[in-house]
Amino acid sequence: MAEPQLSVRSARARDLAHRLARRERRTVADVVERALESYEARETGREPAAAFYARLAANGVEGVDLDAAIRAARRPHRGPEI
């Protein structure tokens, strides 16, 4: 089965992606994925997973039960107000 492809209609975006891929010695897909991940993290304020785990390791936290942390922070939704 063929890999999914991203179609970009901007010649400038295409040229930039290809130039960065050549300079970084990466695939165009890798450059685009990294750029989009960076954009998402910056625009949504989300911390990238690698940075999160690095911060946990730097703070000496090991064996964190993420499921328990999620369950502890969950609050039931009361539903729409009619």
Describe what you observe in this structure:
The protein has one domain (11-73). The protein has 4 helices and no strands. It has helices at residues 11-24, 28-44, 49-58, 66-73. α1 (11-24) packs across α2 (28-44). It is extended and about 50 Å long. The termini are far apart.
Round the Cα radius of gyration to an integer and report it.
19 Å
Question: What's the number of domains?
Answer: 1
What share of residues are in beta strands?
under 5%
Biggest sheet architecture:
none
Short synopsis of the structure:
The protein has 82 residues and is an all-alpha fold. Helix content is 60%, strand content 0%.
SSE blueprint:
Layout: H1 11-24, H2 28-44, H3 49-58, H4 66-73
What labels would you give this structure?
mainly alpha; 0% strand; 4 helices
